[in-house]
From TrEMBL:
<dbReference type="Pfam" id="PF00175">
    <property type="entry name" value="NAD_binding_1"/>
</dbReference>
<dbReference type="InterPro" id="IPR001433">
    <property type="entry name" value="OxRdtase_FAD/NAD-bd"/>
</dbReference>
<dbReference type="InterPro" id="IPR017938">
    <property type="entry name" value="Riboflavin_synthase-like_b-brl"/>
</dbReference>
<keyword id="KW-0411">Iron-sulfur</keyword>
<feature type="domain" description="FAD-binding FR-type">
    <location>
        <begin position="1"/>
        <end position="103"/>
    </location>
</feature>
<dbReference type="InterPro" id="IPR008333">
    <property type="entry name" value="Cbr1-like_FAD-bd_dom"/>
</dbReference>
<dbReference type="InterPro" id="IPR001041">
    <property type="entry name" value="2Fe-2S_ferredoxin-type"/>
</dbReference>
<keyword id="KW-0560">Oxidoreductase</keyword>
<keyword id="KW-0274">FAD</keyword>
<dbReference type="InterPro" id="IPR050415">
    <property type="entry name" value="MRET"/>
</dbReference>
<dbReference type="InterPro" id="IPR039261">
    <property type="entry name" value="FNR_nucleotide-bd"/>
</dbReference>
<dbReference type="InterPro" id="IPR006058">
    <property type="entry name" value="2Fe2S_fd_BS"/>
</dbReference>
<dbReference type="Pfam" id="PF00111">
    <property type="entry name" value="Fer2"/>
</dbReference>
<keyword id="KW-0001">2Fe-2S</keyword>
<keyword id="KW-0408">Iron</keyword>
<feature type="domain" description="2Fe-2S ferredoxin-type">
    <location>
        <begin position="247"/>
        <end position="335"/>
    </location>
</feature>
<dbReference type="Pfam" id="PF00970">
    <property type="entry name" value="FAD_binding_6"/>
</dbReference>
């Protein structure tokens, strides 16, 4: 489902980062701390782009929904949003998604962020402080002091929760590039906590090496570039459908049961949407879990999977946006 959200305010968080604050989208637009939105961005070369940006707001503080966008060199999406979006701009947005979210806000957390990776980390920190009971240590790495996104908000949170929040800054201009040994030493007093890491790949590699002793408690958010536009998916032609043959899908969703002829060259999600069935989805690229469903009988093959673990696969969980039929009959449940 595509939502049209109006921007109420644009907030400058740093010289190269902006927060887009949206008008109230309604009660059906719920989200969890650490999730992201997929935005449709006009492309100056024609058509549109789909770009994912993390929510920096918290669903537990009563504040407005917001995403934070940092400019990327030659980034067609981020630069357009930072240069052209103003109060009153309306954007097409897919529902919130992503699994980078704590199961409980009452845990003690160690949060590590590099650069714009602070965005989902900020959502988690705000939520845990507002609705949880645990303690938080937040380590934030940047190039220099001017690069620090949410600098004032972090100072305010630390002053408001002195017994629960510790904020540690790492500045490359002062301390050099962070390495595993240095991060391990800094985070040692908090290493037994639930750990969330987000930032550039190099930072996350160093952070995960530093915290390799806590694999069961370590959660890493890695963003994948979308290779196609979920707002502009082209359905297969009738000739392509006929050439590939057909299977039968038995789908249980929202209390209803559907029996559908399924072209073997069509993805399950596309089949459902084409038939007017309101199946959940977000990225349509196999990089999130919004479209996950369970295969209760039969078999499918997935073209791509960047999110499901082996235990999920063993339990029959698949991504509808990447699933093609293997057997003649496939039973699918969203219940």
């Amino acid at each position: 489902m595509i939502h049209r959200l109006k921007v109420d305010e644009v907030v400058e968080e740093s010289p190269d980062a902006r927060s887009l604050v949206f008008a109230d989208p309604g009660d059906d637009f719920s989200y969890r701390p650490g999730q992201f939105l997929t935005l449709r961005v006009p492309d100056e070369r024609g058509g549109s782009l789909a770009r994912c940006y993390s929510l920096s707001s918290s669903p537990h503080t009563g504040t407005a929904l917001r995403v934070t966008v940092k400019r990327v060199p030659d980034g067609r999406g981020s630069n357009w949003l930072c240069d052209h979006v103003t109060a009153g701009t309306v954007l097409d947005v897919l529902p919130p998604d992503g699994g980078f979210s704590p199961k409980s806000l009452d845990a003690d957390f160690l949060l590590l962020a590099g650069g714009s990776g602070i965005t989902p980390i900020m959502s988690i920190a705000r939520s845990a402080l507002a609705a949880g009971t645990g303690r938080i240590a937040l380590l934030y790495a940047n190039r220099d002091e001017r690069s620090v996104i949410f600098a004032e908000a972090l100072r305010h949170l630390a002053a408001e929760h002195p017994e629960r929040l510790v904020v540690l800054h790492w500045l490359e201009t002062v301390q050099g590039l962070p390495d595993a040994a240095a991060l391990r030493a800094l985070t040692a007093p908090f290493a037994d906590r639930e750990v969330f890491v987000c930032g550039p790949n190099a930072f996350m590699d160093v952070a995960t090496e530093a915290l390799a002793t806590a694999p069961g408690r370590l959660h890493v958010e890695r963003f994948h570039s979308l290779t196609a536009n979920p707002f502009e998916q082209d359905p297969p032609t009738a000739a392509e459908d006929a050439a590939g043959g057909w299977a039968t899908a038995h789908v249980e969703i929202d209390g209803d049961r559907h029996r559908l002829d399924w072209p073997r060259r069509q993805r399950l999600l596309d089949l459902l949407l084409d038939r007017g069935i309101d199946a959940p989805f977000s990225c349509r690229q196999g990089a999130c879990s919004a479209c996950a469903c369970r295969i209760t009988a039969g078999e499918v093959s997935m073209e791509r999977n960047d999110i499901l673990e082996q235990q999920d696969l063993d339990d029959g969980i698949v991504l509808a946006c990447q699933s093609f039929p293997v057997t003649d009959e496939v039973h699918v449940s969203y219940e």
